[in-house]
Amino acid sequence: MTGGPGVKDATAIVGIGQTPFAKRLPEDERTLACRAVLAALDDAGIAPGEVDALASYTMEETDEVELAKAVGLGDLTFFSKVGFGGGGSCATVAHLAAAIAAGQATVGVAWRSRKRGSGPRPWTNTTAQLPTPAQWTRPFGLLRPADEIAMLARRYMHEYGATRDHLFNVALACRNRANQNPAAIMYDRPLTREMYMTSRWISEPLCLYDNCLETDGALACVIVSAERARDCRRRPVYVHSAAQGLPAQHHGMVNYWNDDPLTGPSWTAARHLWKHADFTPADVDVAQIYDAFTPLVPLSLEGYGFCGRGEGGAFTEGGALEIGGRLPVNTGGGGLSEAYVHGFNLINEGVKQLRGIATAQVPGAATCLVTAGEGVPTSALLLRS
Amino acid sequence: MLSPVTDADGAPFWRYAAQGELRVQTCADCAEPRFPPRPCCPHCQSFTSEWRRLSGRGRIWSYVVPHPPLLPDYAAQAPYNVIVVELTDAPRIRLIGNLVPEANAPLGAFPPDRIRIGARVQAVFDDAGLPRWILERP
Ligand SMILES: [Zn+2]
After folding, report:
1. Which of A178, A179, A331, B133 would give a disulfide with B121, using CB separation of 3.0 to 4.6 Å?
2. Does the pLDDT at position A100 exceed 90?
3. Closest residue on chain A to B76 (Cα)
């Protein structure tokens, strides 16, 4: 193993795969999962029978048994599931990287399949509102993730002077990149400031365009040791650093019950991530920042150290998040405008950037930060070419 | 409307609320209040707690105004407000609730454009025993 102890550069992503993204796909989640996994293995040039490790989200409904049986995987010696919805995305790769670095497995596949565009939304189901932690929130009408994050966003805007224009900057950067990406749901649908400012409210201060897309689709990626990666079909994208973050006294998606709610899980993940990296936020060429809701981007920009506390809104000014800006983000369109598949499309987009094949390519991109859901226990990856 | 589904740790809060009292779980050993209620004190790891009665005064820490699509009972009252209240007697504790003109008013009865972060509020209780919040100086 090169690059010192731990996961640093010990493994690489060598294959990525995805299904089409749409509001409605005819196939079921299990079929979509199989298609994405096989596409990723084909991209890597690795046979299904060589796979011995799997990782996905606890909310993934296609389990390891079904997937392994359907696509013909080999004997599995490692399998892992990560909790907290979109907070788990990067951790699926991180778990496989750790397992492979530690010798528990040799070929890992991470995936997420989801029919959120045509399937039911959890918050429309009354019985899903009733787990006991909800006793402190749901009876008062704080019902949806959008409401929970809007509460944090309002406080953030009040405390630091962030504005709706800052949130619009986030939505616009994602939409502009989606307009360059034929696979994106919003490929042919430009966004204007007027459309944003006059759109309907979802949960004030968040409007329609502050919310991610409801999407049907699946994605997967393949991870092997750095040594093995050299023999694969594609240019390896190395997992340079990886972290999870669950801050002390954190609470679900309503972390106004911390001493300091505006320093969320990203701050915890970032400390570990940078400590084990050879580079700093200033060295990051492109970032894929989890964007289920626009305010998560300024909060994450602060958490991962791209700017100081309270400066995340102002950071978005002057086209900073656009191609050619200070930190191009979500270059496939992100959850806001490419597809919302629990953030997995951000991982694959990071790989595309470092292979140099992205639809909105950052010239010479050699380092990419990918983050998972913020406001919930999270995870992050530093990828490098 | 959704009613609180309680667990063993949270049940006393709702029992006191039904009597018109706002109480928070407080460590019986180190006196640190905690929320949401749970079996053990994160400061001193004591398993002994008591329910301390508060004045019911607080300040609005943040608020949202949800719009449909929402669960039908809530959609019928939208747009309404949901507020987070920072308690005067226990500043580290923030409770979720609704700002209303009076205890039994509908969720959407308070004009959203009059809600301000930092406004002083007072707990009241509706007929179902749910804590609500009114402006201290309407
Ligand atoms: Zn204690």
Report:
1. B133
2. yes
3. A141
Of A141, A150, A205, which has the smallest distance from its Cβ to B74's Cβ? Answer: A141
Q: pLDDT digits over A163-221, tens only?
A: 999 999 999 999 999 999 999 999 999 999 999 999 999 999 999 999 999 999 999 99
User: CATH for B11-135?
Assistant: 2.40.50.840
Verify whether the Cβ–Cβ distance A139 to B63 is below 8 Å.
no
Return the SS3 of B120: strand
Catalytic positions of A = 290, 340
What is the rounded CA–CA span in Å between residue A297 and residue B74?
29
**A344-355 and A89-101 are packed helices; what angle lies between their axes, rounded to 10 degrees?**
60
Q: What is the number of other CB atoms lying within 10 angstroms of the CB of residue A248? A: 8
Question: A207 vs chain B: nearest CA distance in angstroms?
Answer: 10
Determine what percent of chain A falls in helix, strand and coil, rounding each to the nearest 5: 40, 20, 40
Measure A259 CA to ligand 1 centroid, in angstroms. Answer: 16
Which residue among B36, B64, B70 places its CB closest to the CB of A151? B64
Q: How far apart are CA A325 and CA A193, in angstroms?
A: 19
Q: Is the dihedral of CA A251, A253, A258, A262 positive or negative?
A: positive
Grade residue B56 by pLDDT with cuts at 50, 70 and 90.
very high
The verdict on ipTM greater than 0.95 is yes
pLDDT of residue A3: 43
pLDDT tens digits for range A74-85: 999 999 999 999
- pTM, to two decimals: 0.96
